[in-house]
Design goal:
The protein is an alpha/beta fold and about 210 residues long. It has a single domain (about 1-205), classed as Rossmann fold. It has helices spanning about 10-20, 40-55, 70-80, 85-105, 120-130, 145-155, 160, 180-190, 195-200, and strands spanning about 1-5, 25-35, 60-65, 105-110, 135, 205. The protein has a six-stranded mixed β-sheet with strand order 5-4-1-2-3-6, sandwiched between helices. Strand 2, helix 2 (about 40-55) and strand 3 (about 60-65) form a beta-alpha-beta unit. Helix 1 runs parallel beside helix 2 and helix 1 crosses helix 6 (about 145-155). The radius of gyration is 16 Å and the shape is globular.
C-alpha cells in the first residue's frame, strides 16, 4: 500500500509520513515549492528531511517538487483573498490526487491537526478534501503540538524543520475559517483550477 505525502518544510507533515510509514505504508513525498527566483535552499532542506524520514521508516522514499508559486499567485490575485488558504490547499490536494494516479498510490497523507491554523478548521477541512479524487489520511488529526514535536525530535526531522524558512507571501490578513463549498467552487471556476493543477505537474522534478 502506498500514499502520496504532501510534505512542507515544517514540523508536522514529516511526522505524518512517519506515523504511517512505520506501519509499512510506502511513501512518495510531494512538495509544493512556493519559493521565488529558483531558491534551491528550500529544496535541499526538503531532501534532508526526506533522508531522515527514510531512515526512520527504514524504506526508500522518493521525493518530488512541484512549482506552486504561480498557482498560488493566481489564486491570491484573482479570487477572494479570504479564501486563499482554502483554495491553495485544494490546489495541492488536486495535484496530489493526479500524482497518486501516476505513482499508483491509493491515498494522500497530510500533516493537518484539527484547528491548528485557519485552513484546518473542521469546516475548511471538509471543503478542502472534496478537491481530491482519492482518500485523504490525516494521522495527526487529534494530536497536539507537543506530541508532534516530540515525535519530530525522535526521528531527527525537527532540527531541519525549524531551520530558517520563508513565510508564505500570499497569506491573507483575515483567512476564512468557515468557508462554503459553493463559494469556493465559484472562485475556482474563474481560474480553471483543474487546469492549474495539471499545468503545475508539468513542471515536476525528482529530488535527489
Amino acid at each position: 500500500m502506498k500514499g502520496v505525502l504532501l510534505m512542507s518544510d515544517g514540523i508536522d507533515s514529516p511526522v505524518a509520513g512517519y506515523v504511517l510509514g512505520r506501519q509499512g505504508v510506502g511513501l512518495v513525498v510531494l512538495h509544493f515549492d512556493t519559493s521565488a527566483n529558483g531558491d534551491t535552499g528550500r529544496l535541499e532542506k526538503i531532501s534532508a528531511i526526506r533522508d531522515r524520514l527514510e531512515a526512520a521508516v527504514d524504506a526508500k522514499v522518493d521525493a518530488y517538487s512541484v512549482p506552486h508559486r504561480e498557482t498560488l499567485k493566481r489564486l491570491a490575485s484573482e479570487c477572494k483573498p479570504s479564501l486563499t488558504c482554502v483554495l491553495c490547499r485544494r490546489a495541492m490536494l488536486r495535484a496530489g490526487a493526479l500524482m497518486s494516479e501516476q505513482t499508483e498510490a491509493a491515498f494522500l497523507i497530510t500533516g493537518e491537526s484539527l484547528g491548528q491554523v485557519a485552513s484546518q478548521t473542521l469546516t475548511n477541512l471538509l471543503v478542502e478534501e472534496q478537491a481530491a479524487t482519492v482518500p485523504v489520511l490525516r494521522p495527526l488529526i487529534g494530536m497536539d503540538k507537543v506530541e508532534i514535536v516530540n515525535i519530530a525530535k525522535s526521528i531527527g526531522t525537527y532540527e531541519y524543520s525549524i531551520s530558517s524558512g520563508a513565510a508564505c507571501d500570499f497569506a491573507p490578513e483575515r483567512p476564512a475559517t468557515n468557508s462554503a463549498l459553493d463559494e469556493v467552487l465559484a472562485e475556482e471556476e474563474s481560474v480553471d483550477a483543474a487546469a492549474l493543477a495539471s499545468a503545475a505537474l508539468e513542471g515536476i522534478r525528482k529530488l535527489e
